[in-house]
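Re: [ENG-882] Designed sequences occasionally contain unexpected residues at chain ends

Forwarding the minimal case from QA. Structure tokens:
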């Protein structure tokens, strides 16, 4: 599935979405020479919000990659400008298993009391893709972290997740029992 993010015009203002173009980054490995190459793609959920069928978002209407109605969101768009740098730092980060267990989550606390949560899938890339793993950012938004249950079910260092995903090994999350404080 190809996701293309064209500039979005709202009134007399145009929002450039080039920062969400497909890209790659390297992740160091301990099982082969050279880095794992990870291709990144982004859903438009990074700069839109859900839109009820009975709500008319007017010129803010955008369809997602499944044809669902979404509405352009200025705040999510502004936060999305930080996504490339945030994802580029994954090789030194820990990620969480999302509550639904089908996605992973990385977050930044640079927003003060709120956290910027990035939800993504990581899979082995298709043959001929030009990279080893495919990372698809499904959504990203700010949330109040007051409820610890929203943080996720367990964490793992991203390079370990990448290695296990590439090798097809089961992924086991540390649920807080063996975490060393830094």
């Amino acid at each position: 599935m190809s996701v293309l993010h064209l500039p979005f015009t709202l009134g007399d203002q145009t929002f450039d979405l080039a920062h969400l173009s497909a890209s790659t980054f390297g992740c160091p490995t301990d099982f082969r020479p050279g880095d794992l190459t990870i291709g990144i793609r982004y859903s438009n959920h990074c700069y839109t919000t859900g839109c009820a069928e009975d709500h008319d978002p007017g010129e803010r209407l955008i369809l997602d990659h499944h044809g669902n109605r979404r509405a352009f969101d200025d705040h999510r768009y502004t936060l999305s400008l930080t996504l490339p740098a945030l994802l580029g730092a994954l090789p030194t980060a820990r990620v969480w298993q999302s509550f639904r267990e089908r996605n992973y989550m990385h977050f930044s606390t640079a927003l003060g009391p709120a956290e910027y949560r990035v939800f993504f899938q990581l899979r082995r890339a298709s043959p001929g893709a030009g990279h080893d793993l495919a990372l698809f950012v499904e959504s990203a938004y700010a949330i109040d972290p007051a409820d610890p249950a929203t943080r996720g079910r367990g964490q793992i260092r991203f390079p370990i997740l990448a290695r296990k995903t590439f090798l097809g090994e089961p992924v086991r999350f540390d649920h807080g029992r063996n975490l060393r404080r830094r």
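QA comment: On inspection the terminal residues look reasonable. The helical segments are 74-80, 83-88, 158-167. Proposing we downgrade this to a documentation issue.
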